[in-house]
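A quick word before the example. In earlier lectures we treated sequence and structure as two separate objects. From today on, think of them as two lines of the same record. Here is arginine--tRNA ligase written that way.
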Amino acid sequence: MATTSVEGLCGFLQAMGIENTSFVSTSTDLYTNPLAIYFSHLAELIVQLTDCEQQVAYKSIFPKSPLFGHPVNDGINLLFYFSNSNLARLLMSYVIDRGASYGNNLLTEALVENGVDTKGQKVIVEFSSPNLGKAFTGLHLRSTIIGAFIASVYERLGWNVTRMTFLGDWGKHIGLLAAGWSRFGSDELFDADPLRHLLDVYAQIEELFKKEQEAAKKVHEGEDDAEVSHEIEAERDDFFKKLEDGDPDALTLWKRFREVCIERYTELYARLGVRFDDYSGESDVSHEAIEEVENALKENGVYRESDGAWVIDISKTDEKHGAAIARFRNGTTTYLLRDIATVVERSKKYSFDKMIYVVSARQTTHFQQVFKALDLMGRSDLAQRLEHIGFGDVHGLLPKEGASGLLLSDILDQCRDATKLALDADGDTLQLFSEEDPERVLNALGAINLMADDLSTRRGGTFNFDLNKLANPGDYTGLNLQKWYTGLSSKLSGVEIDRAELESTDYSMFEGEDNAYADILRLLVQFPGIVKTSFEKLESSHILTFLFNLVDLLPNVWEDEAEAEGSSRSLAKLAFYKCFHVVLENGMRTLGLAPLTA
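And the structure line, produced from the sequence above:
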């Protein structure tokens, strides 16, 4: 009998010997968290006790229950322990009934029957967002990994998630890239490796531009009487102005850069197991949306001209922010104005209930300005649906020798090579993947290793990128999680768990003190609560620490295949391994990790 409905759960508990199951209908948590069954039943028993006089209740013996063992009085507290065999009986049926949804805290049919339904809420998670032609920094990397986790955990909690990357494909840096292309661009090199060539071009023109700026500064400060040159600056600004004015030639070059770069980024994100539903960009915001924002700001008296530019008077309600530039002197838009207009457009296109920006804590001021500007233009309804999730810096990332800057491909290749060293040092783990496609395996394992390393760091802390750690076949790595996941998959290959037989099978293997199987069950039962805490705080480290603790215990009960051939592999033991596998996979997927499967 399935435990996913009121009738099914009541019948299951009655079959275990619990006569009064009235507590089942009083708590919706019972359908997503098996611990709630214990807490609810214990609460009912305590209420029964307190119906008598206080002194009698204090001295009374706790009523016998199929779910709890005999209580222990340690002189200070009255300790209650789960009944091992019935914990196994309840939990394993509970996990197998739910499978991939165990831990999701999704609303089940039982909750819908009670008239509760918040499914279908829409959330946009914007993350990664690299800049066209520029380096893929450590902050882009953390945004990608943390954003993938946030999108995954929202999805598993029942939200309708749109994964979006907001490309930096517009603005003055595109004008600078175009100026560099006219001097250093090569069609042949671009076709061979577009991201690398654009980065090289940008690095060269940026170096010339900085020299031009430094020379102009010296003349301005009277240190040099040479003629001031603003050639590159003028070329940069002129190209960006042409883009905003819709010049066909400028747009053709820009589209060529953008389309090829998106294609390449899609391939690289796939190596990480990350996907996007929308490759949005600053270029996508319409003139109409920008005009709507500017008109609303003017109507509310917070938009004014200043020295040829247009600024938003955020200082009228928030003195610490002052005035923020919305349009430059030549009339081109700023990132701030485009970001505000993008919010307005996305609200119309997606009708989102929430939008989350996963961007470095360094940009906190920018997002405060965006939210405040929406308030000032009379759109507090939108501002209240926005959230900036910041994170700490990254140390230790370096471009490969001789390169002009860092690319995502460089990071992934470094992690792949480090993970190969870990595999070479651990023959047992290497043997697990011996029949797989080597390139696919190494790319996948490198990505899992990298993401687990970052996700184990608290979001607000600094992530120290350390290839030596990835090259070490240690216990607290993504590689170790994948090792046990693959081992469990192999052990369970071809195994079918008969639910009817499971209800009546022998669970005596879980009895006795210091039972290693029961210790693991006590962890598995906590998984939904761990996911809920991780979601509330948007901290991936809660789940990852839980998974590391879980696989730490698995060697204590691991039965290799040679031992299994000479012993009886009971249904209870197979169901135990199945539940472990389910929780490990669900935990990894909730983190945004893509377990390597055959």
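Notice the following. The CA atoms of residues 27 and 40 lie 8 Å apart. We will return to this example when we discuss secondary structure assignment.
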